[in-house]
Amino acid sequence: MHSSIKNAILPLLISACLLTQGCTVLSHDDNSSSVMMNQLVIAEPLPISYKSEIAIARLSEVLERVKISDEQRAELFYDRGVLYDSVGLRSLARIDFSHALQLKPDLVDAYNFLGIHLTQVQEFSQAYEQFDSALELDPEHEYAYLNRGIALYYGARPELAAADFKAFHHQQKDDPYRLLWLYLTEYEVDDIAAKSALERRAELVDERTWAKQVIYLYLGDISQQTFISNLTRNVTSSKQLTDRLCEAYFYLGKYNQMRGFSNAAANFFKLSLSTNVYEFVEHRYAKLELDLMRTLAAQEQITEIDEAAKL
Description:
Helix content is about 75%, strand content about 0%. It is mainly α. The longest helix is centred in the last third of the chain and has 30 residues, at about 280-310.
């Protein structure tokens, strides 16, 4: 590549990264979604639980000072890893889960958590191995099917992901979240068939469940504006509101992403992250969505430069 072309790449890649790192300039197609952004209820980020901080300190003290068996130590590493994960300290959690498995190789839930963390950093092959290990030890571990399905979905293997999500959905057919992840995956294979299946399966979901509104949004039964205006309905506490908004922002992000409104989608994913509801699956993967969008934007810029260089 000529040096002049290389010099042109850097500013273009920077502008591509700004898509998901800062304020964005809305395209004409995103204008309707930007109107929706002005009507949003903004969540107050959840503070770190002082109880979690105290529990982490106590577990650390026991691990450092108390003489216990390897099995007990493995359990404590796992418990501390779960606490680290709950307050957003992913790297520390991953270290503890690895320590736990070194001491107790049959600790199923540690494999599941490691797989989640590897998915979040796009180490998909290693994530599959962790989930496979969990399912070999416990074939009935339903959340390993969910998390392996998510890893396969983000690893661009929608057919395999759909099989895992179907197994997960089969365990509780009235759970709207199981249904939504299955829909998102089937949409990648056949969007028309996916919508038809969503409509059929949604009949089992209780109308009183707020997430039924997400299903109605995806089916086109309600508008984005109506969905947003209903977000605070029947909310009785700030914690409940923050939890709901974490989920709603993520699914609004996916909704806009599927419609091609990338800027609006990125903003919704950022709003999901801003809630600090670290334990929710929607919060976990909002950051991955932004990372993937950033990578795609950069690749598209490079392709455009390469095409221009051929002219």
